[in-house]
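We emphasize that the prediction below concerns an isolated chain of 417 residues; any contacts that depend on oligomerization or on bound cofactors are therefore not represented. The input was used exactly as deposited, without trimming of termini.
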Amino acid sequence: MAAPPGPPSLPPVPVPAPVDAGRRIHVLDALRGFALLGIFLMNIEWFTRPPQHMGQGLDPSATGIDRIAALGVYVLVQGKFWVLFSLLFGMGFALMSGRHGGPAFQRVYLRRCLALLGFGLAHGLLLWNGDILHAYAIAGLLLVALDGIPRRRWPWLGAGLYLGMAAGVAAYGLVLDLAQPGLQQEFVDMAAEYEAGAAAAAAALSRGSWAQAVRENAHAFLTLTLPGLVVLLPMVLGVFMLGAWLYRTGRFQDVAAHRGWFARLAAWTLPPGALLLAFALSAGTGFDGMREAGAMMRAMGWMFLASLPLALAYLALFALGFGAPGPGRILRWLAPAGRMALTHYLLQSLVAALLFHGYGLGLWGQVGRAGQVGLVLVVFALQVLASHWWLARFRFGPMEWLWRWISYGSAPPMRVR
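Result of the prediction step, given as a token string:
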């Protein structure tokens, strides 16, 4: 890899303050909008399937076009877009620390992470137990604690954290394969317990009141989501470190001038990512829960291993398109949605909950995977259009404005002058 040109130079900001639109790096905003689309494609399924089935792959009831859509999302989307979004979070950390630095930055960033933790907990308990914001907040605090480590070590430490945990999951699957014959009854009992939990969750979410849905969300958040941090948190932190290093290479300030570097990044990451994805698919695409725990964990581990290089490949290909005159004009349309990423992420959950849960339209189980994909495309297109309209009048999205108020300690001006 050629020596990086160094981080981009931005005009100094003497006091920490929100950044105006003219100072933003638009390719990162557009990438964030692109990541939002992928995250919604993945998340929407879990507003109409019980959380106990997460990790079990494709819905066994999906057939025909729904099966094709489910497989397409599983292959092209699953795992890649939360990694891409995490890379962008790490870039945001590097951008803020480079612009401000010192104790002032640390105070702002501490409040920023604590506010995000509050948003994530509220989201996970009130709307959807699969929230990832709380993990981002905790990993962001850890990132500040690691800020004293020399920057040249960040990519190696970050990659080691992520790949080490992913390989550990795959290895755990092999251990379960070896242990399962001698513990057959224990696995059967665990599978029965999970299925009972899944049935209770489906009843509460599909037919219950909002209060019942909140109780089920709280139960799933405490028993499934939070324990999952043991694996997820080191991986998120590792990707944050990689994202911070990527930003500090300075190449995102002018992606058109660094097309060769992004092309090489895609060439380095796409083939190994595709190979690892093939290993994941060979382990299976659907599993009978704990009865096939070994194969399920092996597939999950291989998918984790594939997701990092493929997310980097997506990032590189997007940057190449953004730097080209024709595709760049189209991709720039995503930038306003990326500037309102927190608002849209929470809004996507609200829309999905009102559509599928019992306290809304109650469409749980009635919209197949193909219909879900179509719904996501329609909702996301409306979000993009709404973002253009909103940001022509206001400086921030509603949640972004609140987040900045908490982070900087005063309410920033909302109206565009």
